[in-house]
Amino acid sequence: MEKALRAYAEVLRLVRRLPKESRGYYAKYARENFVNYRDVDPFDSTTLHDLFHRTYNHSIWLLHKYSIDDSAADKLKRICCG
To answer: DSSP assignment, residue 42?
Structure first.
């Protein structure tokens, strides 16, 4: 649970780097996705691994969409993939 909260907080930090007009949409999208998966079994390491990698990959895609350098997601990478 702690890892998920750290990942969520970092995703919200990345959302703040987006253009002002798109921040609300992506913050809500991130929240909905984290809420949808809150009931995942915390002992199912395969599912958790996949979800954290997907979190990171979607964040990288979003940064590329808005031409933001990947290095902004280094902390998220350490949380999700490290």
So the answer is: T
Tokens for 73? 């997601």
Torsion of CA 40, 41, 45, 49, to 10 degrees: 10
Residues 28-59 have pLDDT tens digits of 999 999 999 888 898 999 999 999 999 999 99
Who contacts 65 (Cβ-Cβ below 8 Å, separation ≥6)? none
Tell me which amino acid residue 32 is: E
Helix (H, G, I), strand (E, B) or coil at 69: coil
Q: Is 44 helix (H, G, I), strand (E, B) or coil?
A: coil
Which pair of structure tokens corresponds to residue 51?
């979800």
**Polymer length in residues for the chain:** 82
Rounded Cα–Cα distance for residues 17 and 13 (Å): 7
